[in-house]
Amino acid sequence: MLVFYIFAAVVIFLGILSIRSGFGFARYVRGELVNAPPAYAPFATVIAPCRGLESGLRENLAALFKQTYPAYEIIFVTDSNEDPSLGVIEETIRAAHGRSEVGARVVIAGAAVDCGQKVHNLRVAVTQVDPHCEVLVFVDSDARPHAQWLKSLVAPLADQGIGAATGYRWFLPEKDGFASSLRSVWNASIASALGSRGDKNFCWGGSTAIRRSTFDQLEVRDAWHGTVSDDFAMTRVLQHAKLPIHFVPACLVPSLDNCSMKELLEFTNRQLKITRVYAPHLWKPLLIGSLLFTGVFFGGLVLVIIRAALGLDFALPLLLLVVIFLLGSAKAYIRWQAVAVVLSGYRKLASKDLPAHLLLWPFASALFLWNALVAGFSRRIQWRGTTYELKSSTEAVIIRQ
User: Fold this and answer.
1) For the segment 189-210, what is each residue's pLDDT rounded down to a tens digit?
2) 388 pairs with which residues across the strands?
3) What is the C-alpha separation between 27 and 326, in angstroms, rounded?
4) How far are the Cα atoms of 190, 199, 235, 249, 310 from residue 167, in angstroms, in the given order?
5) Could you give the CA distance from residue 135 to residue 69 in angstroms, rounded to a whole number?
């Protein structure tokens, strides 16, 4: 019991620190939203890699044509003329023709050989941008950006001391389901890791803007060679150059989708395997932290049940578990409140998902533990139909396409 009490006290202390960071995240989000962005809007190229059909693809791509931005182009890039997304892309371009002055075209990148398919597509697409392009913007096909997204994402680059500006995803399940809700909660904890520390932020490939001159000077395209993670590779290059990454809360974009338990495990395991290879300094504390929490919380539940069955006193361990749970739920609520302001256009879906954030966060922590353990024993991932073996941060072997 003494061992349990000691570790429970540690978890409670960490929970209090987490609450502090939650308030810090909320303050940062509110502060960024009330500040008027700089009037900086040079010609930009939006690059949208696509592969396969996914829920809401047509609406997601159509949103790219509705940006309140003076001048930009869109490059849709896929690896094959046979890709199912190509028909949706072409229909979206035709539908926008006459209603939008935005230039849009498709680039066929071909199959990847020595890097991830998405990274290969991006490496080809950046060579096809308009000569007048001053800012490169990358967006994932599962994101649905609002009309101010591009303007908000590019504006911080008015400060030439900033390396890149980034947003992040927020999963909003359209249908009820444990797996979809758990994915939303799991992902939310990563979103709130972003904030005011530009040296600690990371680029999310689904919503990142970088000056073209910075991209070229830092040779990001070369840094992508041999990788499967455009996010981590660009982040590492910017950190080595000591250029901060500015997190733009207004560019938290909803991803409206559902998933099965199999898809949940595939997604979360893949994220942690990539983290294990590209950022082991993040993987190790995550493994230790999730192991500590899971052991105390779920082990404590077992302890309470056993003591209750034996007729022993269980009030104190139960009280400690309640305190731990309430601290985690409070952090989840603080985070949700901050994000709900950004996602005001999806308030109904966000409100519907709130109970999951308040109740499922212990299961998300347990899932993090499982992901971290799996990542410790395997570097093989499957991503949109392709299987990779991550030999190192600069070498990815394609096992099966």
Assistant:
1) 999 899 999 999 999 989 999 9
2) 381, 398
3) 21
4) 12, 15, 13, 6, 52
5) 13
